[in-house]
Amino acid sequence: MKLATKLIHAGQEPDPSTGAIMTPIYQTSTYVQEAPGVNKGYEYARSQNPTRKALEECLAAIENGAFGLSFGSGVAATDTVMKLLRPGDEVIAADDMYGGTYRLFTKIYEPMGVRFHFVNMGNPENIRPLINANTKLVWTESPTNPLMSITDIAAVAAICKENKILLTVDNTFATPWLQNPLDLGADIVLHSGTKYLGGHSDLIHGCLMMNDPELREKLYFIQKSCGAVPGPMDCFLVLRGLKTLHVRMKAHCENGRTIAHYLRNHPKVGHVYWPGFEDHPNHDIAKMQMRDFGGMMSFILTDASGEAARRFLTGTHLFALAESLGGVESLVNHPASMTHASIPKAERDRIGVVEGLIRLSVGIEDVEDLIADLDAALNKV
């Protein structure tokens, strides 16, 4: 099946008891057993739920994977991967990443004895000098949050396989519609399903997809034992959102392209970070491993001060100032004080997440209205 068909049908069959075309919301905590240990495949809802199972099968299919696991949030999915590690293990991670991931790594797992090396993964060879006998995991995003850096996933995967190291790729910004890291050699793909997969800013969800059955069993054991699972209603909402992902992503990409070029040509905008520009670092890699360039971008005004950014951020109407991304509505974000505030200022400044940086999640509204909104805000700067 092609991806658009998988999004609508994978893992989902009409309900056998009623013929309902939509997967039912199995709002139950437990299941009746015919005898001790004799059941219909479900024992307790923390371990299994039919709505969640349908979603997990769909998630696996759309990433061309064998297995999918659902979690209560993207951070919960990240936490589950980290629980594969032990004190003394080392992780090589992209230095430009979601602030919540950085916080989990440095504030929770580093004090437990896991060591982290943060490196610019725009050049995969930057990884090699950091690899040693204790290196167990490489973690990257592509495109990254918020600087839209591009990692050559296939090249990083080759280095990881050569050294028997797990590779996890956060594919939240690209979505399965634009990019499939498992096909490029990644071991685990992560999504914050809160974002584009759900698509309507009405749920919290995370997921992991993989091909290796032994790895799946390890991650499932952690999922079941630690219990960071989504409820059936959230699973239902993600399933519903997935049915329109391909339609929404086409609109996100079209609007994103138009707005990226509009911003680049505006006299009050200094620099735009969007991988669709031919002079964007690793544009050729993005063009090779992605089908389009998405609706996420960041920019800095010609007046790069935090005060100028604040005037812009409080001057939009359709672009709502809020955390998160990937919904049908457009959002504007100030990474330094919002999504990436947990990263120390010196580190933020070093990688380019400065006070003047503004991030856009371009929605699927009429693009002329979005440009008029941006124009009005830029006129206030």
In short:
With 381 residues, this protein is α/β, with parallel strands linked by helices.
Provide a descriptive summary of the structure in words.
With 381 residues, the chain is α/β, with parallel strands linked by helices. It is built from 13 helices and 12 strands. Strands 1-7-6-5-4-2-3 form a 7-stranded mixed sheet, sandwiched between helices. Strands 8-9-12-11-10 form a 5-stranded mixed sheet. α2 (50-62) packs parallel to α8 (232-242). The protein is globular. It starts with a helix and ends with a helix.
Largest sheet: 7 strands, mixed
Mean pLDDT: 97
Topology-level CATH name of the largest domain: Aspartate Aminotransferase, domain 2
Return the domain count. Answer: 2
Gyration radius (Cα, Å) is: 21 Å
Classified by CATH, the class of the largest domain is Alpha Beta
Share in helix:
25-40%
**Overall CATH architecture of the largest domain:** 3-Layer(aba) Sandwich
Structural class: alpha/beta
CATH superfamily caption of the largest domain? Type I PLP-dependent aspartate aminotransferase-like (Major domain)
Provide the β-strand percentage band. 5-15%
